[in-house]
Design a protein that fits this description.
- This protein is mostly beta strands.
- It is built from no helices and 11 strands.
- Strands 2, 4, 5, 6, 9, 10 and 11 form a 7-stranded mixed beta sheet that branches. Strands 1-3-8-7 form a 4-stranded antiparallel beta sheet, with no helix packed on it.
- It starts with a strand and ends with a strand.
Length: 118
């Protein structure tokens, strides 16, 4: 089992920044993918950003150039730096984790609310 604990959400004005953290513990994998998803009320869940154990990253078009995903391997922690936030970024943000060869994310954090006011 892998446990994920998120932190860092909150309320920010448009144009501001927030940094989310996700700490993984338990039986972690040597080859893994960690991701940030978000879900706004009435909308489908969106995969915002991914990072592999190798450091390779990918982003949704909606956040490219504004969000940066990074990791601290020593701390088993992944970060999502969110800059130039927009009201449409308002959502509950979830951290997810899987073995690289798996097709689905089996481990999820509890979610953290991000609210961007206009």
């Amino acid at each position: 089992q892998v446990q994920l604990v998120e932190s860092g959400g909150g309320l920010v004005q448009a144009g501001g920044s927030l940094r989310l953290s996700c700490a993984a513990s338990g039986r972690t994998f040597s080859t893994y993918v960690m991701a940030w998803f978000r879900q706004a009320p009435g909308k489908e869940r969106e995969n915002v950003a991914d990072i592999l154990w190798s450091g390779a990253t990918s982003y949704a078009d909606s956040v490219k150039g504004r969000f940066t995903i990074s990791q601290n391997n020593a701390k088993n922690t992944v970060y999502l730096q969110m800059n130039s936030l927009k009201p449409e970024d308002t959502a509950v943000y979830y951290c997810a984790y899987k073995n690289y060869v798996w097709s689905t994310y089996d481990y999820w954090g509890q979610g953290t609310q991000v609210t961007v006011s206009s």
